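User: I'm new to structure prediction. If I give you an amino acid sequence, what do you actually give back? Let's try with this one:
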Amino acid sequence: MQRGLLTPLHARPQVSPAFQDTPPLRAHGIIQEPLSPVCTQQTKGNSNTKDRLLNRTSLTRYAWLSIGAALTTITLKSSAYLLTGSVGLLSDAIEATINLLAAAMALSMLTIAARPEDESHMYGHSKAEYFASSVEGVLILVAAGGISITAIDRFLHPRPLEQMGIGLAISFAATLINFVVARILRSVGKKYRSITLEADSQHLMTDVWTSVGVIISVAAVAATGWEILDPLVALAVAVNIVWTGIRLLRRSVAGLMDASLVPEEQRAIEEVLEKYRQRGIDFHALRTRQAASRHFVSVHVLVPGKWTVHDAHHIAEDVEGDIRAVIHDAVVFTHIEPIEDELSHQDIHLDRP
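Assistant: Good question. You get back a string of structure tokens that encode the predicted 3D arrangement of the chain. For your 353 residues, that looks like this:
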């Protein structure tokens, strides 16, 4: 029952006589005024699918942008570490390496997620993005472990820093690159609801704040001569990285477990259904789930049993269209049931009796 846009009012078909003569069903909350179902206009589904796939495929270029930024920052931060010997800057360079691995994973998963549905994956491949964010979360935790080990060793065996001015300048340039790329990825990720790009953006922003902390610590060492600040800041960086990794893993697991849409989107759907309830239509068995950029909504539509299939079908089309208007790109499934039939109320739960 998934169609395109609603037709203008003057293009609506005549309601069948049986529909107009439907008596009021006050026992079931059906209003006395008959409804005027709207005829939805048939659109070319293949064209919509191609447009959506084109948008998803274009996201891979942002993964390439992230890869380019990671290669550049690895070079800059490694140079800064070699010049200064700062374990803080070394931790920064290690995280930049993790960024590269994460960006490569993002590229591969975005490519898979952009594929159209096929016989083996009738709901598409969008969940592939969760694998990218899961792997990125694990890599972040591994990086945190490596940074902690290096920081503890430097804490036990301190070493004076060298050429800190040049090292800090190089590190600042790398940080600026990460900041610009992170903002771009965040904007695109939110626009296209790509958890992969949003995760990459969060990781890069964590890297940015990490780099700012390292730069401040190295500058403090240069100003005070307290070499212990270098490994202490590196340990703080590791703790921050662990928290970011855990958050990414939790979000990825929620997506793989078919978590419901966020409360704001569920409220938007309920507002749509409430408008129809005021017109005498009822609903139950509302279920939602999110698969990366795709949103799935299913609901049972209860209508008077005396309505024709034609009339009930158009109401269901209107409901689907209104839900898609508030939840863009949502895949909506409706199931029509007679409101008077007791059997209609026995399929609310996922496991039927």
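You can read the tokens as a compact description of the fold. Here is one thing that stands out. The CA atoms of residues 206 and 240 lie 8 Å apart.
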